[in-house]
Sequence to fold (132 residues):
Amino acid sequence: MKFSRQSRLLRPVEFKSVFQQPIRSGDNCFRILARANEIQRHRLGMAVSKKVCAKAVDRNRIKRVIRENFRAQMVGSAFGRTLDIVVLPAAMASKQSNQALQDSLTAHWQKLIRKVEDQKTGNSQDQQRTQR
Fold:
């Protein structure tokens, strides 16, 4: 399946809406922010800065891995709710292999979907702690 223009966050307004009240997931390679949207597909935005990866080759490699993993895992998949996702790589990401980056991203997608489903049903960790 192709990574089409409709699967991307393109405008600053779209990025800002994700940054306002995100669902978060993070590790030593990526910090990922997501927010449920009202569109019928998941959308991806990336912010790979020169501060994180000085060389353009490394920035482009990371973006390529993110896009391909998103396309393979998320585009066309049927979940209860769709997400707008912004991926922010950490400095450690430029030192990792492509396979390590893909494994990290796959775990993040699953974690985000689980968090959104928990929010939807009202089973957040905060609520579980207060019920104890």
Notes: DSSP finds four helices and four strands in the chain. Residues 5-115 form a domain with the Ribosomal Protein S5; domain 2 fold (CATH 3.30.230.10).
